[in-house]
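Morning, I've got a small favour to ask if you have a moment. I'm working through a protein record and want to make sense of it properly. The fold is given in discrete form, as structure tokens running alongside the sequence. Can you walk me through what the tokens say about the fold? Thanks so much in advance, here it is:
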Amino acid sequence: MSELSELYQQVILDHNKKPRNYRQLENANRVAEGHNPLCGDQLTVYLEMDGGVVKEISFVGSGCAISKASASMMTQSLKGKTREEAQVLFDEFHRMVTGELDAETTENHLGRLTIFSGVRDYPARVKCASLSWHTMHAALEGEERATTENLGPELHGEAAG
């Protein structure tokens, strides 16, 4: 196993066992529910926006290790970001996991989130990794629901998450 694969597994397991910001946010002024019908992952993302800034963000729900770890790391990455910065991270993360952005060769703002770049090689896992991001984006846009079913055909995998 390569060092990167080992690091990836360690980070995923750590965030799955001890997810950061895993709680209902009482002061949330934006909330969205996300669902991945392919494997049953579901979560709720809570945002407290202060003007155009993500003052606080959290999530609750159930899902596979990749889904939970992605949500955990997303909340850490977005806290304190402007709406525009959150949009850039959402776009870059989505393009990275779908193989449209090579995080190693293309300038980006993803930082530690690049640990999920290998997900692009497992189409069924792309939806697991991106569910929390699409749910956050829905909340940011004032929408109440997100689903991986409305994601492009490039994300349709055959294995359950």
In short: The helical segments are 3-17, 65-78, 83-97, 123-140. The beta strands are 30-36, 41-50, 53-62, 145-147. The mean pLDDT is 89.
